[in-house]
Amino acid sequence: MARGKSKDPGVVAANRRATFDYDLGDRYEAGLSLLGSEARSLRVNGADVSTAWVSIDGRGEAHVKEMRIPVLNHAAFGHEERRTRKLLLHREQIDTIKGLIEREGMTLVVTKCYFKEGRAKLEMAVARGKKKHDKRQALRAKETEKEARQAMRRGR
Description:
Small Protein B, Chain: A
């Protein structure tokens, strides 16, 4: 999602598709370790987190993968758009997250990228993939709720 399409002014990118494709659980906030050109590009161009996910390696470090930060045309030293970036988390948080995602069918999905007090942050959620019939049920429930709200408005 490009910058400016979110209701929250500090949000650089949001993964709106995540709530459709996954059942989201616990959410965590992590700092993002960036190069200078990446930080500037985030502010100017935004980012794409629609395919981004988080992995924890054997050394106990968390990394975000498949997050796209476009390169600035006029940057002296560029960067790779989809490089793996390190996340800044406390050891206890990493251990908790690692325990949660080791369960069968669980993953860590990026839901938002934003600036907080001048620092780049990432919001991620522990998620379980939805099956096709789960998505249909979610759409039906959403539609019924919408119809109920419309009926209430007409009744007033």
